[in-house]
Amino acid sequence: MFIGHWAPALVAASRRKSAGIATLFIAAQLVDWAFYALLLGGFEKMRFTPGISAMNELDLYRVPYTHSLLGTLVFAALFAWLLWGIFRDRTVALIGGAVVLSHWLLDLLVHVPDLTLWGQPPRLGLGLWNHPWIAIPLELGITGAALWFYWDKRRPGLPKVAMLGLTLLVLQVINWLAPVENEVTSGTSVLAFSAYTLATLTAWWVGKSEGEARRTR
């Protein structure tokens, strides 16, 4: 799953008291930020394996830290602790941690069995990437619904929300249709970081209009 990971961030950001949409966008993809950083250092491993699933050729054959449930729980706890230190609000911290944890749970739906509970077998994954007629509507549907829910609750500028939706849609279409690389390089991580940064900056821009809308009411 790609842009669908931001659906929990949008729902969480709809709360009047939250860490903010940009921070929650980081939370939603924190696991993958860490994964692509660890990939650069050789601490986790990935390869492109044609045919591993109908929609995605990423073969995460050694990802014990970021794509295990235990590892994700550690990232979630650390992020919640960081938010507690900043906001001194338990609810804000817990929601932020839950958004981090949602990453593993959503991956469980679409990944072929490459996730683990603690870095060792059994390997888990329901494999919806092998069923595009389910995976595609699911990804677009939960993201679109969450985006509408966020706008309905927070009422930021509609053109900015539309731009965020368009940005996410374009990133997803590129993810689905772009030619697959032959091998994993440093550019693989740079490309992922660029996509996450673009989405997060667009979310930050949208979040600014929340304050503008409140001041005009």
Summarize the structure.
With 217 residues, this protein is mostly helical.
Detailed description of the structure:
The structure is a single chain. This protein is mostly helical and 217 residues long. Helix content is 65%, strand content 4%. The termini are far apart. Residues 213-217 have low confidence and may be disordered.
Query: In one word, what is the shape?
Result: globular
Seen as an oligomer or otherwise, the chain set is: single chain
Count of individual beta strands: 2
Total helix count? 8
**Order of SSEs, N→C?**
HHHEEHHHHH
The average pLDDT value, as a whole number, equals 95
Proportion of β residues?
under 5%
SS-based class: mainly alpha
Keywords:
8 helices; 65% helix; 2 strands; mainly alpha; two-stranded antiparallel ribbon; 217 residues; disordered C terminus
Helices and strands in order:
Layout: H1 6-13, H2 21-28, H3 30-41, E1 45-48, E2 58-62, H4 69-87, H5 90-110, H6 132-154, H7 158-177, H8 186-216
Antiparallel strand pairs: 1-2
